[in-house]
Specification:
single chain; about 575 residues; 2 domains; twelve-stranded antiparallel beta sheet; disordered N terminus; DUF1559 domain-containing protein; DUF1559; Pilin-like
Length: about 575
């Protein structure tokens, strides 16, 4: 077996060793009724992370953190509660939920979006629902889902549901709806959810079977480790009653599966020790070479000491060796305990780690509501960069041919064969794809279909979940727009000015990127008010000068007239979009 194939196995082994060091109090699921926030977590979710933020904030180990925060003065701290709703100081518990792809329809695409991330917040004091609405969802539309009010701003990025006067749900509308409509109580995460209702400040659950693991990845797992693929769920928690202890429970379908899983974990630990030992020897050799092999000699031939500038690297090597030895000790005798269908292990964390664990958890809980904004900013930036690259490609084509490409390439009988997006492939680093196209055949011909089915990264918009090989990047065509069906315009023909003329639009229904389907411009028809509805009415555009801009269609002055003047390249009405 190659090292590359063994690497994931070794990593699992290392983690299993870390989770199998010192026995401690077992993780006990509380049998009491679930609080309102945890009762919302679907037991068939992909996973969840539950943080008792208030308990952690008041933990003795966080006293230094509190001191720094309170050093700003009571008045300054009080301003936060005065200007935010709900009051930040009343944050009690935070639960981050990942839903299966089938739970609600993901509306956006990113690393986590196939799982429709949703946030559940619980507060220590009742909040004023109307104040929260005004702060988060101005001009909101409300509807009832499972007896609860769901609020969605007219152009909001986040939906909000009021469960009671202390509990909120935030996320995509589809995710919030799925949480409210949840009725699954006996799924793989039921035990983990019940455990979160206890006193442990941090509890996480993972539904392993819900993870989208490619079948080909499972096939490559050696037979001796195959029992681990039977794993149903994993529950992890941190107990900070006395000293921080990480506890992990792995749940299998039955006792026989758990027995096989235990044997596989111990084999993984043994295998990991082999690789760790090899790496330890390499690091020892490198440390010796680094410290002794590079030492300079004085005039008498004696080696002189190393300068302090070389100390950090040497210290890191020594620390690395210490860490490897520590992990090796853990893996040598992993006390994995088996009880029925469960394997349980725990590891005592160093005392100094408690501040970082608690502080990091509190920070994560407080910052989670902002994750949506950060994610959307990144997606918007990527979309605008794609438009920028398309604009550069169109200008590169103009530099070579003296004109922009036509909107479509026509066949001998005047039939549209393929889009301008095929024509500029060489200018967006896709020459290999372009060279295989049969340029005298339609985009979906037998020869070209396999190429048209490829997803071109520059043509994807990360802000929405597109079908493979689809795009929303189109050009306006005809009736004085910058593009015509069969001929390409020259820059000199854009007499309204390149900075005042739209070249590419991001909106409308997605189309196959190679298909010659664009925005057909008709000056007698108003620009569609809902053309950017998937983007909350924010229309991303590339202008003829290569710049990229986002137009708020909902707030654009005289939208119909303004868009008409921006699309037509020579109507004598140069619009300064910055004035709108």
């Amino acid at each position: 077996m190659s090292r590359r194939r063994l690497l994931p196995v070794v990593l699992v082994a290392v983690m299993s060793g870390l989770f199998a060091f010192l026995p401690s109090r077992p993780m006990i699921a509380d049998s009491r009724p679930l609080p309102s926030d945890l009762a919302l977590v679907p037991s068939d979710a992909v996973g969840f992370l539950h943080i008792r933020a208030a308990d952690l904030w008041n933990h003795p180990d966080l006293k230094p953190w509190r001191g720094v925060f309170e050093g700003a003065g009571q008045r300054s701290v009080g301003l936060l509660d005065l200007h935010f709703a709900p009051k930040p100081s009343t944050t009690d518990r935070v639960t981050f939920v990942l839903l299966p792809p089938g739970k609600g329809k993901p509306q956006r695409r990113s690393d986590f979006d196939p799982f429709n991330p949703t946030l559940i917040l619980h507060f220590t004091e009742p909040f004023d629902k109307e104040q929260v609405k005004k702060a988060h969802a101005e001009k909101a539309k409300s509807k009832t889902v499972a007896g609860k009010e769901l609020v969605l701003a007219e152009r909001a990025d986040v939906a909000m549901a009021f469960v009671d006067d202390r509990t909120l749900i935030l996320g995509e509308e589809s995710g919030v709806t799925a949480i409210l409509a949840n009725t699954k109580k006996d799924g793989p995460l039921a035990t983990a959810i019940q455990a979160a209702a206890g006193t442990q400040p941090i509890v996480a659950g993972l539904n392993v079977k819900a993870l989208p693991i490619p079948p080909e990845a499972l096939v490559q797992i050696p037979d001796e480790f195959k029992p681990l693929t039977d794993l149903d769920a994993v529950t992890a928690s941190i107990d900070m009653t006395k000293e921080p202890v990480l506890q992990v429970r792995a749940t299998f379908p039955n006792a026989d599966s758990a027995t096989g899983g235990e044997k596989a974990m111990r084999k993984l630990a043994d295998l990991a020790r082999v690789f760790l030992n090899q790496h330890r020897q390499e690091l020892t050799t490198e440390l010796t070479r680094h410290l002794d092999g590079k030492r300079k000699k004085d005039a008498g031939g004696a080696k002189v000491h190393r300068p302090l500038g070389d100390f950090p690297e040497a210290a890191m090597m020594v620390a690395g060796l210490g860490g490897l030895n520590f992990v090796d000790d853990l893996l040598a005798h992993p006390p994995i305990e088996r009880k029925g269908a469960d394997l349980t292990t725990s590891v005592k964390l160093p005392a100094w780690a408690s501040q970082f664990v608690a502080g990091g958890a509190v920070a994560a809980g407080v910052m989670m509501p902002a994750v949506q904004k950060v994610r959307e900013t990144a997606e918007r930036s990527k979309a605008l960069n794609n438009l920028k690259q398309i604009g550069i490609a169109l200008h590169s084509y103009h530099d070579v041919y003296g004109h922009f490409p036509p909107a479509a390439t026509l066949g001998k009988k005047g039939k549209k064969l393929y889009s301008w997006r095929v024509t500029i492939l060489p200018y967006i680093e896709q020459s290999a794809v372009y060279s295989q196209f049969k340029l005298d055949e339609p985009w979906d011909s037998e020869s070209n279909k396999k190429l048209s089915d490829l997803t071109i990264p520059t043509y994807t918009d990360p802000r929405i979940a597109l079908k493979p090989a689809h795009t929303v990047y189109k050009v306006p065509v005809g009736n004085g727009a910058m593009f015509d069906l069969a001929t390409g315009c020259k820059i000199l023909s854009i007499t309204d000015g390149t900075s005042n003329t739209i070249m590419v639009l991001a909106g409308g229904d997605p189309v196959p990127w190679a298909k010659p389907e664009e925005f057909e411009y008709d000056p007698k028809v108003e620009f569609p008010a809902d053309y950017a509805k998937e983007f909350d009415d924010f229309l991303a555009t590339a202008f003829a000068d290569g710049s990229v801009r986002v137009l708020n269609l909902a707030k654009l002055k005289n939208r119909a007239q303004t868009m008409r003047h921006l699309i037509e390249r020579a109507d004598g009405n140069a619009i300064n979009i910055d004035d709108n």
